[in-house]
């Protein structure tokens, strides 16, 4: 009898076969037959049934990739189209190298992992709405009389209200615009001398990265008392998208109340929340 070494990645590393001149009894032939059937069943389950593991070096797909079970890529995974993974198992896809995808990554009932810790995607634009929690001093109070829960100014001196963005915006996203929803108090004789201002601020935590400071700011654009006293937007458009580095900085939006920087400031202005628009091409593991 001799030992024939096979491909360990394809299941059997070796199998006993008869030599020339050996008596070929049923037991010897059965070993070979069982090995062949085991290999066929193993590969069928993994390629067709999708219940096992395929180990390879690199995968480069010009179209879409659909995974019905486990997949382990020993090198890089590049998919020009969409990656769709669906299984009841815990781990769907493990990538030892990098992952680059031209379309969507859709995972159902499982997870996608890579030792590099991130995926690169086609650019996406996202807008999210935020109305709190917010922090302020005694210049604003939360109106709880309806389910809207908006903030109301209580002084004609400038007071600031801030809303943290780190819990909502992903790391390495590029912020392009912030919009505050505002409503001036009724009965203005004219526009207030100190109009509300929307500010995007970054605060450095530690010593790494740029110093703390405003990323951008914009004043209320209302051109008439009618426009100011109606619910309206205060847009802050960043000419250059700002990369959101939440590893080194705390980001927050600040809205100021109308104030006595000139005449006609009165109490009762309303702040209803923010919309933040950003783009991203990278999804980080943490």
Descriptors:
Jelly Rolls, single chain, five-stranded antiparallel β-sheet, 2 helices, 286 residues, mainly beta, six-stranded antiparallel β-sheet
Task: Tell me what you see in this structure.
This protein is mainly β and 286 residues long. The protein folds into 3 domains: 48 residues; 62 residues, no CATH class; 160 residues, Galactose-binding domain-like (Jelly Rolls, Sandwich). 10% of the residues lie in helices and 45% in strands. Strands 13, 15, 16, 18, 21 and 23 form a 6-stranded antiparallel sheet that branches. The protein has a 5-stranded antiparallel sheet with strand order 14-17-22-19-20, with no helix packed on it. Strands 3-6-9-12 form a 4-stranded parallel sheet, with no helix packed on it. Strand 1 and strand 2 form a beta hairpin. It is rod-shaped, with a radius of gyration of 31 Å. About 2% of the residues have low confidence.
Topology:
Layout: E1 2-5, E2 14-17, H1 26-49, E3 55-56, E4 59-61, E5 65-67, E6 71-73, E7 77-79, E8 83-86, E9 93-95, E10 99-101, E11 105-108, E12 112-114, E13 118-130, E14 134-136, E15 140-143, E16 150-153, E17 160-164, E18 174-183, E19 197-204, E20 213-219, H2 225-229, E21 232-243, E22 249-256, E23 270-284
Parallel strand pairs: 3-6, 4-7, 5-8, 6-9, 7-10, 8-11, 9-12
Antiparallel strand pairs: 1-2, 13-23, 14-17, 15-16, 16-23, 17-22, 18-21, 18-23, 19-20, 19-22
What is the domain tally?
A: 3
What CATH architecture of the largest domain would you give?
Sandwich
Q: How would you classify the helix and strand content by structural class?
A: mainly beta
C-alpha end-to-end distance: 55 Å
